[in-house]
Amino acid sequence: MTRTITRVRGPGIPPPASRAHDWAGIACAALIAAVNVSVIARFRLPFLEPALGFWFLLIHPAYLLYTTSAWRGSAAAERLGYSLAAALLLLMLAGLAANTFLPLLGVQRPLDTIPVVVLGDTLTAALYLFRRQYPARVRWRTRLQPVEPAESRLLAGSGLSVALAVLGANRLNNGAGDQVSLVALGAIVITLLLLLHARRRVREGVIAVILYLLSLALLLMTSLRGWYVTGHDIQAEYRVFQLTQAHARWDISYFRDAYNACLSITILPTELARVVSVDGPYIYKVFFQVIFAACPVLVYAIARRYWSRSVGILAAVYFVGFPTFFTDMPFLNRQEIAFLFVCVAILLITHGGWARQRRRPALLAAAIGIELSHYSTMYLFLGTLVVAWAAQRGGALGRRCWRRRADGAHVTTATWPTVGIGSILMLAVITVLWGELATHTAGSAVSDARSAVSALAGHSGSTRSGNVSYGLLAPSAESPQTAVNAYRQATVQQRGGAAPPGYAPASVLARYRTPVVDAAPALPLTSVGGALTAAGIPVDGLNILMRQAAAKGEQVFIGVGLIAMVMARRLRRQVGQEFFCLCVGATAMLAIITVLPDLSGDYGILRAFQGALILVAPVLVTGSLMAFSPLGRRWGPRAAAAVCVGIFVSTTGLLPQITGGYPAQLSLNNSGSYYNAYYMHPQEEAALGWLQKEPGVLPDGVQAENYTDQFYFTSAPDVTRGQFLVDIYPSLVRQSSWLFLSYFTTRTGDAGVAANGDIITYAYPMGFLRDRKNLVYNNGGAEIYR
Amino acid sequence: MPRRADPAAEARATDGTGRRPKSRASRWWLAATVLTAVAAGISLLTPVGRHQWALSLFRQPTPYTVLSFTKPTALPATAVRNRPLRFSFTVGNHEGRAEDYRYVLSASSGRGSRVLGISARTVTAGAAWTVSAAVRPACRASPCRIQVSLPGHRETIDFLVSLAGPERGGPEHGHRPRLAPPRPGT
């Protein structure tokens, strides 16, 4: 690595740490000392200590890396991505090293406050020395020149969006209305329109800041819903984080599970929690979103590698406007960090200014980051690279048409492909080393691979996720009632037959049906929706039609974009073969996940699409531009931009919320499927607190819809997975267990079951519980049976 | 590709001293900012406005009442008809203000229900009222469900007991409460 770093200090170039800038170094040292004292002395200054702690552990190290010459020849947003990812990787690896070696030196809690603060200090000192050795000439004065009026308006709009998003989420949490959240969404849309209008007058750095703030606003609108841990995967993510924090040490043997193998949700949040001093859930709710909001900026940077500003901005809008970005990503914190590393890996692969000998080790480092952050993102990334490599090797187009770049330059070492069989093998080795040899948690991936192969051979009996219906060539998904019936059969087999001891016999179960209900009916029409309906516009159908059109239209645009890249010589030369093949790889992986039933259920097709958009978002925009090109050079791009913003207005929920007639979204309502399934109420928290104090909870086991995770680690050394059942479905209810009824079930009598990656709501047979168990706790929002 | 800024336009935009004259738009921005700040200030003067700000900025308490058995694992599973059956439960007040609570103990089976005991007390905010009760279950059928409810509140708790011993006749509805007086706890 160091061989390729240029020492820019030399004759005629002043040393960067000149006396004029000493004050900045002194101020940083003083701040670091202040953070050390306040964290160790536990001053707990609200807002200030979290901000300073975050700056100390992540922002300042990333800044030090940003101002080295390690990323020479890279644009500002790209440098930011490399620096942020490098800082995150260093934190995870340094944490892992401390976790491994400090116990050998007698430190039994290597991730406790003092070791983490010392780790932060050491990291800062090392990076400071590294920067002294390899400084970059960052022209701060040029970059921080006076902000133009157009820029200030956009910055104000995006900053206001963040503030309104926070206030709106708080209001909804307090049971108030959606007005402020709606205004926040409106501000986001207006800022985007202004940005598209003024894109030529706004500097690249300012565009990056605006995209960052708008993305952050969207993420916070969802992540800040609820005062506790809200969401699906985040429940288990929070538990493994708490496990590491409670022991001040990470050990896979505490809980051998793929979640616990992700250092992004174990060591990383524990390190952050030691210095930011906030309630545990807010590590994910705020700080992880602050980190992940850089991802759309990197998507913009990837698009800018080959395309214009307008294409880059629209690509970023498609990325953040995809529903998974703001409805699911805040609940998938491990994948948020992994996506950052994927973005960085793509930027590294396509870095035309670096030689291949430099790109490949950097790709390897990014791949380590992906693997340590999230196992299945690594599998998908590896699959993408394999397909891309195969496409490169066996491309029917031949190499001649790709040989020249847009500028006419001949192929050089810089344009040689980064992805080769060697790098793919290295990535596979990393995956096996961590997933299998180090943590022994790759079992589910192996079984998924087996079932995928079986499905390819046509021997699979599994069912697909309901989300495949959004696919362009959607295979049939089964009906919800069929899925629930299949679930009943599966649970009867799982528990060990018709009448195992401790469970209700099959004859009893047969008396209690579980019919599927529509738990998330469409919102009632608003006055606007009513007026539109009166004018003959069917609002209900329109919203559904727009969503379907958006989902299928995006796929059509990607297809058109890929074909255009093959057919149009200008595009072909502009983009280059490797990026094209990577896009083919991402699209192929998406198609595989859509077609193979187990993968669509286990991994989630929408998450896969979100990941693919990192690469194909600019291709999507290119496709839309091609599709609208008959409108002419003036109106074609405008129509493409209008469609992009129109889709954003629909998918973010702004339009359905204004008109009504569509299921409620969590970021805008205190209703809807996600609210019912994942929103935690104070009564539920109180009930869990009561249950945790009861003796004998763990040996008897706890059953709940979503909250069983809460009890994983009450007494970690004694816990085995057999003590938990993650559902209250009647055939799984044990006579001796504690059974927790959520707010939703208590208030409506309905319950949810996760089948093939979807939540299906059914009418819970309350009589079954009443006949078999005692209702021992009730607070109006949660009930506990035993 | 991005367009570079037009130097001529740049020159036109400045007043010759290098400083940018305040444009009409920037004056509008200033006016809008001042108006927003004034509106925010005025809204703080009214209770409704303050409440709205509080809803946006601070977490508001959620009022609720907790009803639970004190020793849920030690609840009796069997009982003898008309013999005292002892258990205890707690009423916790998280309503944010003092609350008058009245509990009703009842027994029910497939053939009807009867009230076994009633009592009332004012519980201050944040406090709990623990009741040790002894009731004589008099269901006509077994199993018998002993229920604690709080009229005026939605919370109820209950447990099932299998009854043994001779059954005493008569309908379960309309019986006078037959109870051992509840012993108020803390």
Q: What do you see in this structure?
A:
- The complex is a heterodimer of chains A (786) and B (186).
- Chain A contains 33 helices and 7 strands.
- By secondary structure, chain A is mostly helical.
- Among the domains of chain A are: 141 residues, no CATH class; 106 residues.
- In chain A, α8 packs parallel to α13.
- The N and C termini of chain A lie far apart (61 Å).
- The N terminus of chain A is likely disordered.
- With 186 residues, chain B is α+β, with helices and mostly antiparallel strands.
- Chain B contains 3 helices and 9 strands, in the order αααβββββββββ.
- The longest helix of chain B is centred in the N-terminal third of the chain and has 20 residues.
- Chain B has 2 domains: 51 residues; 121 residues, Immunoglobulins (Immunoglobulin-like, Sandwich).
- In chain B, the strands form 2 sheets. Chain B has a 5-stranded mixed β-sheet, with no helix packed on it. A 4-stranded antiparallel β-sheet of chain B has the order 1-3-6-9, with no helix packed on it.
- The chains are: A mainly alpha (786), B alpha+beta (186).
- The interface between A and B is large, with 39 and 37 residues.
Oligomer: heterodimer
Shape of chain A: globular
Greatest interface by residues involved = A-B, 39 and 37 residues
Instruction: Give the second-level CATH assignment, the architecture of the largest domain in chain B.
Output: Sandwich
> So how many helices of chain B?
3
Protein structure class of chain A: mainly alpha
**Total DSSP helices of chain A:** 33
Compute the separation of the termini of chain A in Å. 61 Å
User: Percent of residues of chain B in beta strands?
Assistant: 35-45%
CATH class of the largest domain in chain B: Mainly Beta
